[in-house]
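Thread: "does anyone have the structure for this chain?"

Original post by V.I.:
We have the sequence but no experimental structure in hand. Need at least a predicted one for the grant figures.
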Amino acid sequence: MARIDGVPPDKASFLVRIAYWFTKREVGRVIQPVAVHAHHPRLLRGLAGMEMAQKAARTLDPALKTLAGVRVAMRIGCPF
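Reply from O.Q.:
Generated one for you, C-alpha cells below.
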C-alpha cells in the first residue's frame, strides 16, 4: 500500500481526468504513481512529458526497448 493515497476520479480536476483516461487506454487501469502525482498538477505534467518523450525516442529498436522494459520490470518486481 502506498504511503500517499491517490486522487480519486470523482475528485479529480479536468487535467487529471485526461491523464487517467490516457493511462487507462495505455495500461488498462490507473496506476498508483499517476494517481499520487495527481496531487500536484505541475508534477503530473512533468511525468506525462517524460513518459511521452521516452515513448517517442527512436534511438533503439522498438523490440529491444520493449525487451529492456520487461527485463527492468522483472528485476524490480513491477507488477505491470
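V.I.: this helps a lot. The two ends are 16 Å apart (CA to CA).
O.Q.: and The chain has one domain: 9-76.
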